């Protein structure tokens, strides 16, 4: 199994840390992982994306042009990465702020109201874990228990009290992802 | 199972330095490698292993601190990125001239000039052919994964002390900024003063003991005859490195009709390109130089009876390709494919270049 | 008694009034006649012997006339790139804090190309001693203008006299470094008379004592001559120094904390 994923949105949406938790979860199930960020020179508010690869084998290029999955969290990223999905790939997006919805017919498309759900949960920082939940529902490549272990390993001890909230957010995402197109 | 982490290449350099018993790091901030010094400052190794970390006033000062530390027989290092390495070039040639061991890390960015902060491999010539003045060579290691960033720190010190010559880890922002799974090395204690006397007592300036000759760390000899003799000695050392220290990796070469030669991050991209090309029925393999000096010249030559064409893939306008051509001596066509100025080639582009150059497409 | 036996009898421990310190090697010095470096080397060597710190002292020599200082003092030495001696000394003292580390630099090395390194080593208060030999000229390269060359002084690159409007003004380095909190002891000395050398040796001793007590950076400027560069006899040089250098670079301790 090799899963090549792009996660793209604004800086501050937790794009990079979501990728990191996903990669750590892969390590917890003995997979090879890579996490390759790309961002502008701005310290705050620019676009951010990260390529995450989980594989049972040695990973070749950490830099990719074609992806199995795109998790898209703003319009610029939709414009940039929709075309980069492999045919039959998976596009998951949050419709919040999206003015041009995905148009391809040869991919699976799912949406999740991550921003709205995060507001509902009363904590905007749960946003990326809600999205993660949505992703794991449509592509269960890592087990939730390994996500939990990944969080334990990647978060400093003083933040471990936030793990239950993160798991709750993942559950919220699992419950609320909607199919737009399923091939 | 050892200590397995998900870490950035730059962070791993810092962690590996602490764990391998490095005595001192001297650096100056420059993107995209500042995490090395930042990680060290967060880790506070002076409290854990006694390793000293100094933010110098300039790259020039940093490399000269390395010279001072290396002169004491200590395991010392610096890191920088392209423009900073240019500033350090003088100090680097002094290290080579004084036969001092040290680890230099270059996380290359696109140039020339201030250039870009994005990854490039356009400092190959600088690292391998000189960079500073005089006839000298660095041992140059090119990691292609975060794991190798870990492994090559200790290896660089080992080779550096074996040959009394500075060693460079030549990488870029792809490997430096990327996180991968890495198994960290076990902790090795720093050398004690007694161990340093035993290992480097013939040259380390640790204070002249009674009855032994004073030790001088210098690259100066105003007598040309002596300077030539010294240069012969250096050249003999470089030939010994060529004999004993070539490191490389071959991937999918057994049945290959075509060959990619690429190092570091370009080698990773070529591995994906191999998957794509082989899915199309093109039998291509990869020879990945791990040491850029000494260069795997013989290993490339061994492929010549088998392959119909060689594509050197680099994030530069064509530097390593010259060494490939020197190895090949015109026996098979050698072409270069590169993206530069901070652009990373995609695996598809690499396959296209292979097809265009050798398959008449 | 023959004259030889008579001499042999005289050479005995009880008649000894002077002995060359063993820290000073017997190598023939390459310095020009009348040069101040030899006197300063000897002063430092004698203090190293007096304080019994030969085994614990590491010197860092510069680029310039004193690049070969390592041929004259019998201690371990590092030879630095031009201006960078304080960087080498920084790492050496950080990695071997129990050692006595000093740099020995001229005015071209320290005050021109090495300005950043000396200022920052002083500012960090590195536990080292800096010997700054100021003779207002580049000696080794053939007498060019230095940052410390006096106004109107003729050198190979100021053949009509230093014009401060275009070349800047002679830099008072000791005054500058004395303003930095990292320096503990800053003094300006000379070495043209026996009395001056005695004073210099006192300063050297104090500086190394500061190192022993981990007090930070001690900076000793020594105003010296360059007969060849100044195109004068040694005697004229000393007179010229007293008349022109001392008024602009006044001797004495600037800081002692």
TrEMBL record, chain B:
Residue stretches making up the Pyruvate:ferredoxin oxidoreductase core domain: 256-350
UniProt key word Membrane: no
Ranges for domain Pyruvate flavodoxin/ferredoxin oxidoreductase pyrimidine binding: 15-188
PANTHER family membership: SUBUNIT OF PYRUVATE:FLAVODOXIN OXIDOREDUCTASE, SUBUNIT OF PYRUVATE:FLAVODOXIN OXIDOREDUCTASE-RELATED
Pfam entry (one): PFOR_II
UniProt-listed SUPFAM superfamilies: Thiamin diphosphate-binding fold (THDP-binding), TK C-terminal domain-like
Keywords: Oxidoreductase
Entry-linked InterPro entries: 2-oxoacid_oxidoreductase (IPR052368), PFOR_II (IPR033412), Pyrv_Fd/Flavodoxin_OxRdtase_N (IPR002880), THDP-binding (IPR029061), Transketo_C/PFOR_II (IPR009014)
Domain of life: Bacteria
Gene3D superfamilies: 3.40.50.920, 3.40.50.970
CDD domains: TPP_PYR_PFOR_IOR-alpha_like
UniProt protein name: 3-methyl-2-oxobutanoate dehydrogenase subunit VorB
Organism: Paralabilibaculum antarcticum
From TrEMBL, chain C:
Superkingdom classification of source: Bacteria
Keyword annotations of the record: Oxidoreductase
Domain Thiamine pyrophosphate enzyme TPP-binding: 70-222
InterPro entries: 2-oxoacid:Fd_oxidoreductase, THDP-binding, TPP_enzyme_TPP-bd
Keyword Mitochondrion: no
PANTHER family xref list: 2-OXOGLUTARATE OXIDOREDUCTASE SUBUNIT KORB-RELATED (PTHR48084), SUBUNIT OF PYRUVATE:FLAVODOXIN OXIDOREDUCTASE (PTHR48084:SF3)
Name recorded for this polypeptide: Thiamine pyrophosphate-dependent enzyme
The organism of origin for this protein: Paralabilibaculum antarcticum
């Amino acid at each position: 199994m090799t899963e090549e994923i792009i996660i793209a949105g604004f800086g501050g949406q937790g794009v990079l840390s979501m990728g990191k938790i996903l990669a750590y979860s892969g390590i917890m199930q003995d997979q090879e992982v890579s996490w390759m960020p790309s961002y502008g020179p701005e310290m705050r508010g620019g676009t951010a994306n990260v390529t995450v690869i989980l594989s049972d084998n040695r990973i070749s290029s950490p830099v990719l042009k074609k992806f199995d999955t795109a998790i898209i969290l703003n319009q610029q990223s939709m414009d940039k990465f929709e075309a980069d999905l492999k045919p039959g790939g998976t596009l998951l997006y949050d419709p919040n702020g999206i003015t041009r919805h995905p148009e391809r017919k040869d991919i699976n498309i799912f949406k999740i109201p991550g921003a709205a759900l995060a507001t509902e949960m009363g904590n905007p920082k749960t946003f990326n874990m809600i999205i993660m939940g949505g992703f794991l529902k449509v592509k269960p490549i890592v087990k939730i228990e390994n996500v939990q272990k990944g969080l334990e390993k990647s978060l400093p001890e003083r933040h471990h009290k936030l793990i239950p909230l993160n798991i709750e957010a993942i559950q919220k995402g699992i419950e609320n992802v909607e199919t737009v197109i399923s091939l | 199972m050892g200590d397995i982490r998900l870490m950035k290449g730059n962070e791993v350099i810092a962690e590996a330095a602490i764990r391998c018993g490095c005595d001192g790091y001297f650096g100056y901030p420059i993107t995209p490698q500042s995490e090395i010094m930042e990680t060290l400052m967060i880790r506070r190794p002076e409290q854990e292993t006694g390793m000293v970390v100094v933010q110098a006033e300039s790259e020039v000062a940093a490399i000269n601190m390395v010279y001072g530390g290396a002169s004491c027989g200590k395991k010392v290092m610096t890191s920088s990125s392209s423009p900073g390495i240019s500033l350090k070039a003088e100090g680097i040639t002094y290290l080579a001239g004084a036969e001092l061991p040290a680890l230099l890390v270059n996380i290359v960015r696109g140039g020339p000039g201030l250039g870009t902060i994005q990854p490039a491999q356009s400092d190959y010539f600088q690292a391998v052919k000189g960079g500073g003045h005089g006839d000298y060579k660095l041992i140059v290691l090119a990691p292609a994964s975060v794991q190798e960033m870990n492994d090559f720190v200790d290896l660089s010190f080992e080779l550096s002390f074996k040959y009394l010559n500075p060693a460079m880890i030549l990488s870029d922002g792809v490997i430096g900024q990327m996180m991968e799974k890495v198994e960290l090395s076990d902790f090795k204690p720093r050398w004690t003063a007694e161990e340093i006397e035993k290992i480097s007592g013939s040259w380390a300036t640790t204070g002249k003991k009674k009855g032994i000759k004073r030790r001088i760390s210098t690259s100066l000899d105003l007598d040309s005859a002596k300077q030539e003799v010294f240069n012969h000695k250096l050249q003999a050392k470089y030939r010994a490195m060529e004999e004993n220290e070539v490191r490389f990796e071959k991937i999918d070469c057994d049945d290959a009709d075509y060959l990619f030669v690429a190092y570091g991050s370009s080698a990773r991209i070529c591995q994906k390109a191999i998957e794509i090309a082989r899915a199309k029925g093109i039998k291509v393999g990869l020879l990945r130089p791990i040491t850029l000096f000494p260069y795997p010249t013989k290993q490339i030559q061994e492929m010549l009876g088998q392959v119909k064409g060689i594509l050197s893939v680099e994030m530069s306008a064509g530097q390593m390709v010259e060494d490939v051509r020197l190895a090949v001596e015109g026996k098979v066509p050698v072409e270069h494919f590169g993206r530069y100025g901070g652009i990373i080639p995609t695996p598809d582009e690499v396959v296209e270049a292979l097809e265009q150059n050798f398959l008449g497409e | 008694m023959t004259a030889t036996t008579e001499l042999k009898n005289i050479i005995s421990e009880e008649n000894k009034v002077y002995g060359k310190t063993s820290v000073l090697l017997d190598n023939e010095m390459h310095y020009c006649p009348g040069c101040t470096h030899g006197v300063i080397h000897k002063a430092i060597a004698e203090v190293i012997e007096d304080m019994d710190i030969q085994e614990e002292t590491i010197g860092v020599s510069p680029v310039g006339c004193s690049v070969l200082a390592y041929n004259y003092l019998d201690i371990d030495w590092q030879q630095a790139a031009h201006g960078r001696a304080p960087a080498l000394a920084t790492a050496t003292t950080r990695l071997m804090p129990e050692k006595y580390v000093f740099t020995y630099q001229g005015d071209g090395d320290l005050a021109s190309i090495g300005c950043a390194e000396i200022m920052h080593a002083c500012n960090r208060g590195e536990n080292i001693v800096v010997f700054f030999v100021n003779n207002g000229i580049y000696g080794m390269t053939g007498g060019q203008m230095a940052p410390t060359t006096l106004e109107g002084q003729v050198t190979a690159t100021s053949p009509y006299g230093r014009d401060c409007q275009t070349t800047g003004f002679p830099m008072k380095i000791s005054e500058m470094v004395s303003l930095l909190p990292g320096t503990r002891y800053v003094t300006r000395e000379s070495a043209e008379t026996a009395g001056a050398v005695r004073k210099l040796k006192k300063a050297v001793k104090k500086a190394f004592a500061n190192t022993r007590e981990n007090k930070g950076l001690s900076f000793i400027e020594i105003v010296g001559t360059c007969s060849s560069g100044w195109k004068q006899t040694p005697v004229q040089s000393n007179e010229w120094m007293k008349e022109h250098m001392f008024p602009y670079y006044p001797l004495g301790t600037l800081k002692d904390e």
